[in-house]
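Obj.: predict assembly geometry.
Materials: sequence records (below).
Method: joint structure prediction, all chains together.
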Amino acid sequence: MTAAPQINPLRKYVREDRMPHFFCPGCGCGQVLSSFLRGVDALGLDIDKMTAVAGVGCTARIPVYIKMDTLHGVHGRTLAWATGIKLHSPDTKVVVFAGDGDAVSIGGNHFIHAARRNLDVLMIVVNNFNFAMTGGQVAPMTPPGSVTMTTPYGSGEPPFDLCALAVAAGATYVARTATSRIPQMDLAIEKGLKHSGFGVVEVLSQCPTHFGRYALGSASPAKLLDWIEGICVSRERANSMTSEQIEGKLLTGEFVHKSRPIFKGSTFIQESPSDKESAFIEGCPDKKGECRP
Amino acid sequence: MGQEGAAKEKAAKENRVLTGVHFMQGNYAVVEGALAAGCNFFAGYPITPANEISEGMSKRLPAVGGVFLQGEDELCSINAVAGASLAGAKAMTATASAGYDYFQEGLEYGVAVEAPMVIVDVQRCRGENFATQADIMQVHWGPAGDHEMVVLAPSSVQELFDFTVRAFNLAEEYRTPVIVLSETTIALMRERLVIPEEDKIPVVNRRWTSKTPETYLPFEAEEWGVPDFAGLGRGYHTIYSINPHDEKGSIEWDPDVFQRLYTRIPAKISKHREKISTVQHYRMDDAKTALVAYGSEVRPCLDAMTMLREGGKKVGVLKLDVPWPFPEEAVSDLGKRMDLVVTVEMNTGKYAGEIERACSGRCRTGRVTKNRGLIHSPEEILEALECMGEVS
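Observations (raw structure tokens):
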């Protein structure tokens, strides 16, 4: 007797009729997709009541493979859409999937304002260090000096530190992780999903097809993961390093995890005192002495 | 709902429609029209001469249970409106010409995913707040891709109210963005406005699907029809993508899928053109010369008509309430009946080309156009007609 075939329990969330997916072999987007679904499953979230928001790019195709309401296809406007959804329908949990270009190149203005407002949205930024879908052009997080399709003599553009930008602009949960560190990535995404307020999880990810070949001279996903590991330094370890040693590295871990009022609109009529008393404050028992989720 | 909640809801309802006679600025009339139509989400970015719309909305909407957002830019405003609409809201944004440039992207999305949205463009001159009708082509052809835009052009403060209500209703009926093409002239003018009783104002609401998620196809519709709506967060697992998609909403690269989609989306509007693109005839029964105008330019045309009629000239006015979709039947009918058809517009001559095309050489045509930051005076129209020769 043969054992029943093992079926990945996350398959129930996947649009199987959309397979095979369109990611290149060795791309990190599939790992982020899995990690997100593990988070949803572990937390027991009702995916029917959630909405994914994605713009344009490889990362933006992640939710297209999930059985979930999804907005897709306008570059850089993910957070603008999310703002409309959350303000009208605050109970809908919204997760944004954005590449580095979508998030802070064309979408940079929305990014800082969503952070400032503490929009109640989790934004998973898959940073593969270049514009991948369009053929590997320089992006806001491309390391200086990198050869890309549009920087044939090396990039003369200083990069953003996305997490520092998010923290400075007011995001209330910010973490950086990498596809080379699956347990840490899972933890960061899970915490991001649990968080109420603007959360940013930056996932450093491999693009063997473009960034690998042009900038690093290798299309091997394993070599790219090694390279990512080489530039990662945990926040704890960085404490005992000199500024010269940290130069050019990316800190990983959590940068902020705090609570402040979430965005409800540019102006609104204050709730009456009786409403206020029963208002939910994160982590605090309400009047009935129960902790709400 | 508790007693207090019920009282709040009742107060919000009463406050929504300000029935009565008012002396109101055009921009505020838009606000009141939107509220009467059921608007519950507004996003806008500051720009003159559209500011009073945001201002009015920021005060009125929260008081009736709606949401006001001042976007960080127009891109935020238009896309927040798209997001809110897909979440089920009756959503609106407003801007003036320069801000409208940024809307193309969000409009392209709204057309593609069939999101009801209302957009107000208070036309102004490039960089300054003088009167113009220079956006008449942009409001139709701005966004990339094949589409048919619905554009309403009010001529008065009363019509700013009435047409805003109608814009919401058309947006819901056809699941599409609808533009209210305002102008500096009427937006900043104060005039008499009559707001009817709430039950006298026709309101069209979202047509929610009655199907289950298992049987629902989000973009399935009759040949020139409009799909039923499911919205977000209700378990229907819909992909609202700008990319070519089939009836299931799946992104597809099949030419037949492209053709089906890109035929139905414009056709759901163009095939209902006669119902949408209403016109008004003024003394057209025996007219041999027709003045054709939309928006505030209708006003000097009516004055010019009265003056010419006093001199025994058989002149009428065709007022186009809805310049887009182009009222083909009404205009081509002029070609058959008139000796002379004259387009009057406040730009260098844009829409006139469409009028002349529809008359297709069957009558004489002329243009009275200018872009000087000023509306035409009736005298200017008379002078221009004189230059065109015999007006019978």
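Conclusions so far: The mean pLDDT of chain A is 92.
To do: check interface contacts against the pulldown list.
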